[in-house]
Amino acid sequence: MMFHHKMKAEPMSKKKRGVALVTGASSGIGLVTAQALRRDGYLVFGTSRKPMADTVDGVTMLICDVTDDASVKNAVDEVLRRAGRIDLLVNNAGVGLLGGAEESTTEQAKALFDVNVFGIIRMTNAVLPVMRGQQKGRIVNLSSILGLIPAPFNGLYASTKHAVEGYSESLDHEVRTQGIRVVLVEPGLTRTAFEENLTRADRPLSVYDKVRAGAEQLMREAVAKGDAPEVVAEAVLKAANATLPKRRYTAGKMAGQVRFIRRFLPETIVDKNLRKFNGLPA
């Protein structure tokens, strides 16, 4: 009750947007996005793997492990119990993996896909019947520019994001007549805690040591100069609120440039530029 009272007293809520559920909302992009949605008039529920305070800046926090079917069901049921509906799902929970593709065991690759791809599928499958019943709903999936381009030493991570792109666009066609839209948001490099969600390959090979170290250094520098998480939150808001949404929204200048390059330049030029950017011999 206190929470609803706080929402009504919130001076910045211009209109009542509906009920939003944001996964991975304990920090970084997820936290900033949940806060932006609340300011925009949504009643917001966020999820985290570990227990947190019941509310963080007016966002109701729930425990949810996106790799666990029962945990996902419990979180969605809890939102329905408290709010009665779900208008917006933001699939943000994800983890990174740095290393040569060959340097990860199949088990590690599976664990990465379990969060980044199957986590989205679990959450989506849990809310689709709800949204279908409402004949209204929007699902925003956090992809990456690495869902558009190759990424040396982020190969497995990039493959999860390529999978998210194919899944989201296909699903959007399937559910559009049910009043539901599935939209992608593609951040570039974002200033978040670099180490926080980053895993390293579990069987490093010495043949890659030098070039992997270079790739990590390049990534650290790029992240330090990257977009603020607020840039991504702004793109999520656009994707969530557009009456006729675009299929994908790039977040930040770099993401826009990468998308343009990938779409309009010949592959040989893209290949050459990519190797140069990554410090790899032509």
Question: Explain this structure to me?
Answer:
Keywords: Oxidoreductase. Residues 18-210 form the Ketoreductase domain. Pfam families: adh_short. GO terms for molecular function: oxidoreductase activity. The protein has an eight-stranded mixed sheet with strand order 3-4-2-1-5-7-8-10, with helices on both faces. The protein has a two-stranded parallel sheet with strand order 6-9. The chain contains ten helices and ten strands. Helix 2 (28-39) crosses helix 8. The protein has 282 residues and is an alpha/beta fold. It starts with a helix and ends in a 5-residue tail after the last helix. The radius of gyration is 19 Å and the shape is globular.
What's this entry about, in short?
The chain is of the alpha/beta class and 282 residues long. It has helices at 2-9, 28-39, 69-83, 106-116, 118-134, 155-175, 209-224, 229-241, 253-264, 267-277, and strands spanning 18-22, 42-48, 55-56, 59-63, 88-91, 96-98, 137-142, 180-187, 198-200, 248-251.
What is the ordering of alpha helices and beta strands?
Answer: HEHEEEHEEHHEHEEHHEHH
- Enumerate the strands of the largest sheet in spatial order, edge to edge or round the barrel: 3-4-2-1-5-7-8-10
Q: Counting H and I runs of at least 4 residues, what is the number of helices?
A: 10
Distance between the termini: 62 Å
Stated plainly, the CATH topology is called Rossmann fold
* Molecular shape: globular
Low-confidence stretches: 1-13
**Largest beta sheet, briefly?**
8 strands, mixed
CATH architecture grouping: 3-Layer(aba) Sandwich
GO molecular function, one term: oxidoreductase activity
Protein name: Short chain dehydrogenase
Pfam families: adh_short
Organism: Neorhizobium galegae bv. orientalis str. HAMBI 540
